[in-house]
Amino acid sequence: MVWVGNQTLISHFILLGLFTHSPLHLFFFSVIMVMFLVALSGNGLMILLITIDSRLHSPMYFFLSWLSLMDLMLISTIVPRMATDFLLGRGSISFIGCGLQILFFLTLLGDECFLLAFMAYDRYVAISNPLRYSVIMSRRVCWLMVAGSWLFGLVDGLIQAIFTLRFPYCGSQEIDHFFCEVPAILKLACADTSLYETMIYVCCILMLLLPFAVISASYLRILVAVLHMHSAEGRQKAFATCSSHMAVVSLFYGAAMITYMRPQAYHSSKQDKVVSAFYTMITPMLNPLIYSLRNKEVAGALKKLLGRCPCWGGAGLG
User: Which CATH number applies to 13-294?
Assistant: First the structure.
């Protein structure tokens, strides 16, 4: 605690976490740990396959490898800390630690927002303009898109981390959340945060609404192109792929919009924690499954990798 005038400013926070130690919550904790392991193995495997298999060295898989890396880092920023606090029965986190978690989390969240938009645009170009695809989506353009995603995410993370921790915090140290998320922290500020909340809202229009609009427009154009396909099998496959992609994208963007674009007065701690779990844990687990489940090239790369493994040699996978 630090005394300033008549106010006691706090020097650290206490994260209350997502669970209590009831039998039901212990079960949910076990489920989340399984999801964490699935996300780590799924995204790690995607990165490995895309790196070692030359058939997957195309713009679509280039973006997918970066998405997997971002998901890997995003879930690792949140879950290990949450699990440690739950198992050891502590939740204390310093100002600096909280600021770093905000920085890493929002940087990765912003990265993913823009990368998903670029991935949707890549699919639109591939289907709508296949003859010029290799020219439009050149290696240089792909790297610029990824670098732009990281740059925009980093700028957003730095701005929000710095401004959030500049407010004076007095009274309660308890953040009713399982990680340092900006809306939950602002509830403890002993100063007017309305101007900053307006700034967050404007940032979210740039970071969430604009990429989501690009994704929606891209998939709409893709569906129009698909409807003109002569092959019924091709139409069915494209519809199945687009619908699964849009389902995960809507889950990710929808949860983030609910958290960051609602006025502070409408935030409920229990609801915020559940919504946050969707884009910090569930979508990082689902992304490698959704983007590779119906993909014959990824399945072929996995079969080829397993064929190299001596323990699978006798299984006829080579």
Answer: 1.20.1070.10
